[in-house]
Amino acid sequence: EKDMTHPGLTPTVTRMLHDKLYEKRKVAALEIEKLVKTYTSNENTQDIQRVISLLAAEFTLSQNSHSRKGGLIGLAACAIALGNQHIQPHLESLIKPVLICSSDPDSRMRYFACESLYNIVKVSRADTLPYFSELFDALSKLSADPDPNVRNGSDLLDRLLKDIVTETPTFDVTAFVSLLRERMYTKKQFTRRFLVQWLKCVMSIPEVDILVFLPELLDPLLLILGDPSKEIRNMCQSTLGEFQTMIQKSPDKVDFNNMANIIITHSQSEGKISLNDNLLIQERSLNWLVHFISLAGSVVLKYLSGILGAILPTLAHEDVQHKNIRETAKRANVSLMKLITPALDKEQTDQTHRSPIYYYAIVYNYQNNVTNVAKSANPTFYFVVKFHFNFKCSRPNTNLPLTEIVDVFTEHLDFDSTYTKSAVIRWITHLLIKIPYSIFDHVEKIFTEVMKRLSDPADDVVLLTLECMAEMASSVAGTPIDSQVFVGTRLKCKFVVWLNTSLHTSNTPLVLNVYFTKFISRLLRYFKNDQDLLEKRSSFIIRQLCALLHAENVFRALSSSLTFSKEQQELEDPRFCSHAIKKLNTILMTSSELSELREKLKNKSGKENSDLFCCLYKSWCHNPVAAICLCLLTQNYQHCCTLLQKFSDFELTVDLLMELDKLVQLLESPIFAYLRLQLLEGTCRQHLTKCLYSLLMLLPQSRSFDTLHHRLNCVPDSTLLPALSHDSEPGNRLVDVDFNQLFKHFVDVQLRHAEFKRHSRLQASIT
Questions:
Q1: Reduced to 3 states, what is the DSSP secondary structure of residue 580?
Q2: Which of 66, 220, 551, 721 has its CA at a distance of 20 to 30 angstroms from the CA of residue 353?
Q3: Virtual CA dihedral for 200, 201, 204, 207, nearest 10 degrees?
Q4: Residues 6+ apart with CB under 8 A from 306
């Protein structure tokens, strides 16, 4: 008996499909299965399709929920009856109605839809893959269903579909990745877990080259690392770790260019980071960055400005919470620095800007064919020779975005963090060493910004600034200062020694360029405008400069800049000059960094030493006591007596007397031990004794007076000392110096100071 309103189905079967009891619907499904099997054996395709269409239209679309459930179980029965060999022509008619029911408002309906799909897919196996997109979309929603029974049902279907995909070599991975990526930006935890699990499944298929699709998947994967669920975060970390392992095995398959900006974006600090999940995103991104730098090498240099923009702020974090991020950022920073090599420097066409000593070294090494010898004896030297030779022959163009890099440096030099500022200055120094000609195109901007850091409260930042300035002032890319011979050799700064990448050795002659003069001039201007900097930092700054660029070069330049000249007298500030010379004299007389310069001034003679003395003397005249001290150090005692006699024309202010007091204390120090012993010698005793007594006469009755007086009383009676002969050495050790001219200069400078004081008092009385 057949139901004419439902062709192919008996009224009993139809009625049971509408029943609310599951057992009766199941009995009806068994009857449908028998019926479809009969149609299949008779190859009655039309009746099969008629039954499927009836179940889809009349049952699964019914308003009655029980009828819809009956339609679902009936369609599953049809699939089972058809079997794997006959289901393919009817697959679309079977799947589409069930997929519609999978989004039904009734949770029980969604559960039965999962059950029905499971049976259909289990029968059809690989024939289901043309409908993979629809099935995957439904599963992604069902996996996040609020009903746990529905989620359990979808899990069964999910595992089945994964098995089919894994065993099917024709699976369309491209379409799958597109589906996956557009859904991975969801914030639903269950959906995220479902998607990551699917990605891991596809990654496990040997035939699938998933690395090709990594640029599309990396961004959402890093975002999933921010999920509140620890399980999902761990799963995502595991997936990213597998990707890293694949990259290390096959780096040639990775499109670094398409992933660089993604990693840079996620590596950037958000400023106020409080959530651990966001910290994890940043940490993992930085970890990826380290791997990319290691594997991609110079490919990442074109993104250097962006990478530095991400790394530098991260170095500012000092709390324990950010420790891992900070350490990873440091590793990335060091790895990046190692990618900067001299080969990246631009071709230098203007040969006049190169140091003659620099070229001489190249020609000498080449002509004498020392390369093979150097290679066996000194690997570092061999590298230098080889580098210079290649530099001269051919030089690749650099892809470094230096303009953008310098902008990043400028921005981050204003950070409060000492670590960030230090990293920036180290970078600038590194670029000056490795690619001097390229970075010198931006040197004006760099010079101005880095100089500002001299007033930084952190000593480490100031020291790095001085090292950077020293490298800039002695760079081969700068224009050498004409007609001036410099003393000393280039020294490695502490940072370069730590990085172990410098081309400079301690034997490289020091040739200073115009930025040395510019730096000294700017430094004095800073001292003049910032009294606190002059008082608290001048000694530290000058001493470090002397260690980096040799004390004689530094003191010659400072002295020349401070020397009074009639052409610039309107621009001079005598009060500042006097105070600056007082500071410089203290440094010269007491600092260990100046010991070599002191010995040279004290003992050596000749035109070079006389020129050095005259250079210092002309500026030392700004401070009478400093000038006296310099003459005592250089053993020009007769001229010292002349200066002290001139003190009677000066206004003996409290400040001047205090400086004389300090001079006496200095004379009692080990530095002037030789002077005290000379009181026992016949050669210079006469002028030296007169100097000290002149000084004694200027002092008021004080402790310093008593000290000096006691010292002079310790000198034995002249009858016990060697007699003064007529052919004794002159009172001034430097015999080739025109001391009359120097005395005239001293008087002119002091008149200028007296005029300035009178003018200042007049202005004060008017106001």
A1: helix
A2: 551
A3: -120
A4: 260, 261, 264
